[in-house]
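Sorry to interrupt, but I need a hand with the structure work. Leave the record below and I will have a look:
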Amino acid sequence: MKSDMRDMKDSGVEWLGEIPGHWRAVALGAICECQGGFAFPLNLQGRVEGELPFYKVSDMNAPKNKVIMRVANNYISRSDLLGLKAKTTRRGATVFPKIGAAIHTNKKRTLGTEAVIDNNMLSISVRNRQMCTDEYLYLFLTGINLSSLVQEGPVPTIAVKYLLRRAFPLPPLDEQRAIASYLDSETAKLDALIAKSQRLIDLLREKRTALISAVVTRGLDANVEMRDSGVEWLGEIPGHWEVKRLKYVVEINPKKSQLKYSSRELEVSFTPMEAIGERGELDPAQVKPIRDVFHGYTFFGDDDVIVAKITPCFENGKGAIARNLSNGIGFGTTELFVLRPSPYANAEFIYYLTVSARFRNMGIVSMQGAAGQQRVTDLFIRDYRLPLPPLDEQRAIASYLDHETAKLDALIAKSQRLIDLLREKRTALISAAVTGKISVDPSPPPAPPQSIGEGSLQSSECL
C-alpha cells in the first residue's frame, strides 16, 4: 500500500462514494451470474463415493477458517446428476446460504472444485474472466452484509434481483490481482492473531470444564479421605459424600398444576432457546400472559435448574439457574429439562453438576432420535448417579466455582472482544481495498477498461 495520490471521481452510487478515476462502478449482474442448487435426494444421503461433492450449508463449517470448501459429507455421480436434471457449480464460484437464519451468519466460501450445492444455497460466479477474477469477486462479496439483501416474507430469503443490482467497483485486472495479493498478506497477519486468540479461548474453556468436573466430584479439600463410590465410571469420592440418583435429589419437570389458581392474565417470563446461554446466562426479559404459554411450553420457577436436551444445545452446555423471573414463573421451549432442587440440594451445585464434562459426555451417549434431532433421554436424567456432599459443602463448592469461573469467563470475554475487533478490522481493510479507498497498485493508472457491452447495468441502476 502507498499514500493515495490518485484522482478520484464520484461513483454515482451513494453508499460507494468516490472511487479511483480509472475504475468503473457497474452492477454485479453485468459481469456475474447467480445459480441456485437443488434438494439432495434422500436415497443418496450419506453417500461418500462419487465424482462430485454435494455441499450443504452445514459443510461451510468444515474447515472453519478456510476460504475454499474441500470437505463434503455427500457425493453424487454425474449419471445421477443427469437423471435429476441438476446443474453443477464451477470451481472458483462463491457460495453462501440463501434462506433462513443461516443468512445472518454472513458465511461465504469459494469452491475448490466443481461441485453441486443444495437448494438452501446460492452461487455467484464471474461470466467474463477477462473483466474480473474469481478471487477479487470473493473479496468484494466478503464485504457485503447478506442481511441487507433479504426479501421480506415468512422465511427470510436472499433476493437475487437485489444482489445482481448491487454496485460493483471494478478496477483493471492487474490492479485486482495486486489488491488480492496485498489482502492475502495483510489478512494472513490478522488471521494468525485471531487463531492465537481462539486457541487461548479454547484452552480457557477446557480449564473451566476441567475445574468444574474436578470440584463437583472431589470437593475442595485435597487431603480429604477418599472411598470407592461403587460406581465404576465415578471412581473414588470423599468418604463422607453419598451417591444418589438424580431423581432422588431434584424434582424433574415439575407439574403445572401448581398454577391452577393463577390468573390467566398473569405475566410470566418467556424464554426461547436463544435466551439461554452456554455459561449459565438466562434472559427473562420477554414476558407473556400465562394463557399464551400454558399449553405447549415447559414450566419452571425461580431457582429451578434448566438444561437443554436437544443437539447441539446440550453439547454446547446450554443451561442456567432460573432467576428474576416475572412473578417467579417462567415458560420456555419444550427442549428443556427442569430440575427443581430438593431441600437438601443446592441449585448452584446442581447447575455446575449439569455442565460438568462427565454429565455432558454421558448425556451425549444416551441421546436418541434422528440425526439433527437427537435428544438426551428422560431415563438418563432420572438415573444419573451423582456424588452428593452435605448441603453446606455444596454451597461452599458453588461459591468457589462462582468465583473461579468468573475469572476465567472474564479472560474468555476479553479474548473474544479482541477477536471481534480483529475481524472488524479485517472486514474494514478488505472493504477499503476493493472500493478504492486505499491505493494498492504502485504502477501508474492504466487506461480505462473497455465497455462491458450491451445489456450491462449502469451505475444509476445499482443499489
